């Protein structure tokens, strides 16, 4: 049985995960070495060493979740635990959190900084997948099948937005909507949810107008103006985006060579986090960008393919949610870096520097790998057991005159 389980693992998606993580580690060293020396006054490999430790822990965590049966997450006590932990974690940021990039997002533990909002994304995926898979019999009933999980999603996104972390709040909300739309609801039910959302937006609109000075702060409006006119605000709000353009344009087809980026020499702030793709484009050109995009696209598409093959609604929605999380986060990061959407500060999955981010992504990839393994195992081996195998010996005691099939040609 162990041999069959080992053969059932999807090693292509595991390989893509490891390649992206190791490639990201190399690029983190290249993108952060100057900043580590000049701004943090430490050794050039400071962020590289920290990310190396993050990856070592994350790889062990990935292995555990790849081996642990995903169906155990449907347990009611476990669901209560992760929902309460998510809410307590978000509330604890207001009490123990520290400010980073004008947002109170993480809890400083000395040598480590934990961002509860990163873990909440995965909690939402597991919770919504488990609840909607259990509610299949009455999933189109608004009061019983739809609203309770939806209210939890809105409440959690509200807490994340109050940190403020609009990028993560948007990703979490979009992930939730993706799971809801793929949960098996009728189109009429989804339309009712949309109309309910419009009514809620109209209800809260006056409060938003009254508190517009606190909601639409100078920093947030600056991101919009920097997005709309980056070169006109190149010395202020558009500074980071303009230098991202310069990095992308300088790389061309072949790039300037690994370690030869100019923009990372202080022109592109925090290049090893949410703008690491700009450094990749500058140093490795189209080749480096293609490698990252191909790896991310493969994981997302493979995850969606796994969801279509899974016979278990819970496993299918887990695969959809995890694939959606990686795909949406990648789009928001790359969209901000390239000027398609305003900058949000969201990291690039598997490639950017960040302990909480890579840990959550590793847990998610472990769960996705386990869903894939169970799907492959059930297809290859359990199906074979259920197919009736004809036995010739069962007819040995039957006389020839009672076996008409022997005369068939």
From TrEMBL:
It is found in: Membrane. It catalyses: [GlcNAc-(1->4)-Mur2Ac(oyl-L-Ala-gamma-D-Glu-L-Lys-D-Ala-D-Ala)](n)-di-trans,octa-cis-undecaprenyl diphosphate + beta-D-GlcNAc-(1->4)-Mur2Ac(oyl-L-Ala-gamma-D-Glu-L-Lys-D-Ala-D-Ala)-di-trans,octa-cis-undecaprenyl diphosphate = [GlcNAc-(1->4)-Mur2Ac(oyl-L-Ala-gamma-D-Glu-L-Lys-D-Ala-D-Ala)](n+1)-di-trans,octa-cis-undecaprenyl diphosphate + di-trans,octa-cis-undecaprenyl diphosphate + H(+). It is an enzyme of class 2 (transferase). The keyword Amino-acid biosynthesis does not apply. It is a multi-pass membrane protein. Pfam families: FTSW_RODA_SPOVE. GO terms for cellular component: cell division site; plasma membrane. InterPro entries: Cell_cycle_FtsW-rel_CS, FtsW/RodA. One of its GO terms (biological process) is cell division. Its EC number is 2.4.99.28. One of its GO terms (molecular function) is lipid-linked peptidoglycan transporter activity. Keywords: Cell shape, Glycosyltransferase, Membrane, Peptidoglycan synthesis, Transferase, Transmembrane, Transmembrane helix. Belongs to the SEDS family. FtsW subfamily. PANTHER family: CELL CYCLE PROTEIN, PEPTIDOGLYCAN GLYCOSYLTRANSFERASE FTSW-RELATED. Peptidoglycan polymerase that is essential for cell division. This is Probable peptidoglycan glycosyltransferase FtsW.
């Amino acid at each position: 049985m162990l041999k069959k389980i080992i053969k059932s693992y999807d090693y292509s998606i595991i390989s893509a995960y490891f390649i992206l993580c190791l490639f990201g580690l190399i690029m983190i060293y290249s993108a952060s070495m100057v900043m580590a020396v000049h701004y943090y006054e430490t050794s050039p490999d400071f962020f590289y060493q920290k990310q190396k430790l993050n990856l070592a822990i994350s790889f062990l965590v990935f292995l555990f979740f790849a081996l642990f049966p995903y169906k155990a997450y449907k347990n009611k006590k476990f669901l209560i635990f992760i929902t309460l932990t998510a809410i307590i974690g978000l509330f604890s940021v207001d009490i123990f959190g520290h400010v980073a990039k004008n947002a109170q997002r993480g809890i400083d533990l000395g040598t480590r900084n934990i961002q509860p909002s990163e873990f909440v994304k995965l909690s939402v995926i597991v919770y919504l997948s488990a609840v909607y898979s259990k509610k299949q019999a009455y999933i189109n009933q608004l009061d019983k099948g739809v609203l309770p999980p939806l209210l939890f999603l809105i409440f959690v996104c509200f807490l994340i937005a109050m940190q403020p972390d609009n990028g993560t709040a948007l990703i979490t909300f979009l992930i939730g909507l993706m799971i809801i739309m793929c949960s098996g609801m009728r189109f009429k039910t989804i339309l009712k949810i949309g109309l309910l959302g419009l009514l809620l937006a109209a209800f809260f609109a006056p409060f938003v107008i009254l508190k517009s000075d606190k909601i639409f702060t100078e920093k947030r409006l600056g991101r919009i103006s920097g997005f709309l006119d980056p070169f006109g605000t190149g010395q202020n709000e558009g500074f980071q985006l303009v230098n991202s353009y310069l990095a992308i344009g300088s790389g061309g087809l072949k790039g300037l060579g690994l370690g030869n980026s100019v923009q990372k020499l202080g022109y592109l702030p925090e290049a090893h986090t949410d703008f690491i793709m700009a450094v990749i484009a500058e140093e490795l050109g189209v080749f480096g960008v293609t490698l990252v995009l191909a790896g991310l696209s493969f994981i997302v598409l493979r995850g969606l393919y796994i969801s279509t093959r899974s016979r278990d609604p819970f496993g299918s929605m887990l695969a959809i949610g995890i694939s959606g999380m990686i795909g949406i986060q990648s789009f928001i990061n790359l969209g901000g870096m390239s000027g398609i959407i305003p900058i949000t500060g969201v990291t690039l999955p598997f490639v950017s520097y960040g302990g909480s981010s890579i840990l959550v992504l590793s847990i998610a990839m472990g769960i996705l790998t386990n869903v894939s393994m169970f799907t492959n195992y059930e297809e290859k081996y359990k199906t074979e057991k259920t197919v009736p195998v004809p036995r010739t010996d069962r007819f040995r005691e039957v006389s020839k005159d009672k076996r008409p099939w022997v005369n068939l040609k």
